Task: structure prediction
Amino acid sequence: MLVKEIGEQGLLKILQRFCPSDIIGDDGAVLPIAAKKSLVVTTDVLVDNIHFSENTTSASDVGWRSAAANLSDLAAMGASPLGITVGLALPGDTTVDWVENLYQGMTQCLRKYNTPIVGGDIVRSPIINVAITAFGEVSPERTIRRNQARVGDAIVVTGCHGASRGGLELLLNPNLKTNLSTYEKVALIKTHQRPKPRLDVLPVLWEIVDSHSILDICGMDTSDGLADAILQICHSSQVGAAIEATKIPLHKAFQSWLTPEQALNYALYGGEDFELMLCLPKEASTELVSKLGNSAAIIGTIIDSDKVLLQDQYKKNPDQVLNLNRGFQHFSN
Result:
């Protein structure tokens, strides 16, 4: 049996047998370290020509994106960042300037969240790999989990989706003819190259959670695609979801560039938007969306089902059953 035959999800199921079942399964592991604090640990690996390339991403942008990906995982767990370590694998003919720019990009991102680089390792490799482990802390009662969705919860996204995929398309096809303005092109590309982890959502979320006396908080980040996030949460929580396609917030630049079907595909399966998806009671969700603004939206409802349905409120299209096959999966074809 080969890894490519069972795919990313199949391999993860095998590897999870070696880990405590009460720790794994979220965006980071949660380890109790004191009476009122837990340590959150998360690791993310970026590989040359898989997650970035010299045609689309400068060294400083690779650094920013690698740091942002890990900070996003901490935000998805409700955790405040403490520090990161960096594992760097490099060919010997990599320029020193490239490595320095990589770390400058990391630092530019981390500085915004008062997060230091506290160590790491460097090894020789035939290709560049950037592996970051991030550490954060969270109060046990404020830990965001994937398995806490309840039937009737509203599904909230903290911002628009598909923009990163749009930016990547522009980078991969610089001569692509579009109706986009220079400003719109730059905005989409920046979204891809310099994503912002949504740590800013947490203070607003805690205020609402406390005011509504919410005990269990469900959510994760959408870096692997919005459809993936919905499906992962529903699987972990053993529920289904009804998603309203027209409620998914899209970048306004798509209106003059993509068909509605293309824009929806970018939003669901494009990935790397680094927003948060949260499942909360409807009243709390409405308040959260109102306070966040900036394209935050309620896109659906958790239902008593084993399926995730994409629905059209205008009934022009039949319901679709979402699955992981259309999104990016390592080792798949």
In short: Residues 112 and 196 are 10 Å apart (CA to CA). The mean pLDDT is 91. The two ends are 16 Å apart (CA to CA).
